[in-house]
Write a structure and sequence with these properties.
mainly alpha, elongated
Length: about 240
């Protein structure tokens, strides 16, 4: 569902990249020929656009090769154990999406803990299973740290606090559940709470990203407009001043 919600923003981003490529390859060079006839110093934005356009036209094949190499290199990196671990940690820090992934993992943790406790599975074994259920290597490693603490005789609440992974509400619910013997019921409530939050955020994910897209598109249009039309405005001002 997250991937489906991100489909529209990704299409917009790809369209922006394609538009920039076309402008650099065909539109800006045409204006550059016109500006060359002015025989005047061009504004800095225009010089930057012309330089980028010239580089793109001369080395477009290198740019495409570098982009392809970056994609394949990234995919190869996240297949390695260290790369997978670092990428899972980085995903939780992404704007907008990271919070959804984090709370989704918390919902999985709480639901799995409630099920295993209700089924009478030993906590050490349960934590091993739950570390895989959260579907995130970074979070799974923290849960394995909890397992090690439980093996030493510590409480679930104390080991959960030591990981720095859980928000205060979850820690409080774990603590109350241990004191009252209702860990399974309270974890079910925590899992349901985060499931509802994630469901709401996913429904509004596209609306949350749209302002960022509008800012990006606006900035691109502003830079292009300044770079292309500033020399024309300067020329028009010079002509009016000469008159």
């Amino acid at each position: 569902r997250v991937k489906a919600a991100l489909r529209y923003p990704l299409i917009v981003i790809v369209a922006m990249v394609v538009a920039m490529f076309i402008l650099n390859m065909f539109v800006i060079p045409a204006f550059a020929k016109v500006y060359a006839g002015f025989r005047a110093e061009l504004p800095l934005p225009t010089q930057a656009l012309i330089a980028i356009s010239t580089f793109t036209r001369d080395y477009w094949y290198l740019i495409l090769a570098a982009m392809g190499a970056a994609v394949f290199g990234f995919q190869a990196w996240i297949r390695t154990p260290e790369g997978h671990y670092r990428w899972d940690r980085a995903k939780l820090r992404l704007p907008v999406v990271g919070s959804i992934l984090y709370r989704s993992s918390l919902a999985r943790f709480a639901g799995a803990l409630g099920i295993t406790v209700r089924a009478g599975v030993p906590l050490v074994q349960a934590m091993t299973v739950i570390s895989k259920a959260v579907d995130n290597e970074y979070l799974g490693d923290r849960i394995l740290q909890m397992r090690d603490g439980i093996e030493r005789g510590e409480t679930i609440a104390r080991t959960a606090t030591a990981t720095g992974l859980f928000p205060p509400m979850v820690l409080q619910m774990i603590m109350v559940g241990e004191e009252t013997g209702a860990v399974d019921r309270l974890m079910d409530e925590v899992g349901g709470y985060y499931d509802r939050e994630v469901d709401y955020d996913i429904k509004n994910l596209t609306q949350s990203i749209e302002p960022l897209l509008l800012v990006g598109i606006g900035a691109m249009v502003l830079v292009m407009a300044l770079g292309i039309f500033l020399p024309m405005w300067d020329l028009a001002s010079a002509v009016r001043g000469g008159r």
